[in-house]
Design goal:
The complex is a heterodimer of chains A (117) and B (111). Chain A contains no helices and 11 strands. Chain A has strands spanning 3-6, 10-12, 18-25, 34-39, 46-51, 58-60, 68-73, 78-83, 92-100, 103-107, 111-115. Chain A is globular and about 40 Å long. The chains are: A mainly beta (117), B mainly beta (111).
């Protein structure tokens, strides 16, 4: 079936970087943009950016410009989101999601990233 | 930070109809289609409504969406206990290089 499977939970120190993976299966990986959304505990959803797996083109929310990098490896149908200069406020669950038309129809299970000294 | 405004909570008894509003602006809801997501506790969001009023396969027809101008709404008719969840509206925003904006979220409680 169509699914996105993300990497496991991470614990990082302030100032470090984290790289979360999102492996697609059940569909042609290069045919749909992958978006990243995060959610702090008890808070709402926050969009971070998108990546076109075919071209590698990306677009980031202004808030994350300079700190986030979205890449992919088409040979293994996997998208990546790397966030640098981590601070405590980056503690959240990070989701990847497939875009179809103007909506996100398939979501990964989420990856908990904890930033703590 | 959320650009779309929703009421923080809504509630109803089983079988009742509940409506959730979503208020935006000309650059987001006024210019683009609205989507709704349902998030059950401890799980990833699920697409509930896309393109203002379309239901993905498998979504019960108890859920319906509408849009007018810069506002949108989600209606749940025949409320069921399994509908207790957080609901988010969302839309693309043309003002900031293609930003996707979510609503503030509404917690629906089944009394």
């Amino acid at each position: 079936q169509v699914q996105l499977v993300q990497s496991g939970a991470e614990v990082k120190k302030p100032g470090a970087s984290v790289k979360v993976s999102c492996k697609a299966s059940g569909y042609t990986f290069t045919s749909y943009d992958i978006n990243w959304v995060r959610q702090a505990t008890g808070q709402g959803l926050e969009w971070m950016g998108w990546m076109n797996p075919n071209s590698g083109n990306t677009g980031y929310a202004q808030k994350f410009q300079g700190r986030v990098t979205m890449t992919r490896n088409t040979s293994i149908s996997t998208a990546y989101m790397e966030l640098s200069s981590l601070r405590s406020e980056d503690t959240a669950v990070y989701y990847c999601a497939r875009r179809i038309f103007d909506a996100f129809d398939i979501w990964g299970q989420g990856t908990m990233v904890t930033v703590s000294s | 930070q959320s650009v779309l405004t929703q009421p923080p909570s809504a509630s109803g008894t089983p079988g009742q109809r509940v409506t959730i509003s979503c208020s935006g602006s000309s650059s987001n809801i006024g210019s683009n289609t609205v989507n709704w997501y349902q998030q059950l506790p401890g799980t990833a969001p699920k697409l509930l409504i896309y393109s203002n009023n379309q239901r993905p396969s498998g979504v019960p027809d108890r859920f319906s969406g509408s849009k007018s101008g810069t506002s949108a709404s989600l209606a749940i008719s025949g409320l069921q206990s399994e509908d207790e969840a957080d609901y988010y509206c969302a839309a693309w925003d043309d003002s900031l290089n293609g930003l996707y904006v979510f609503g503030t979220g509404t917690k629906v409680t089944v009394l």
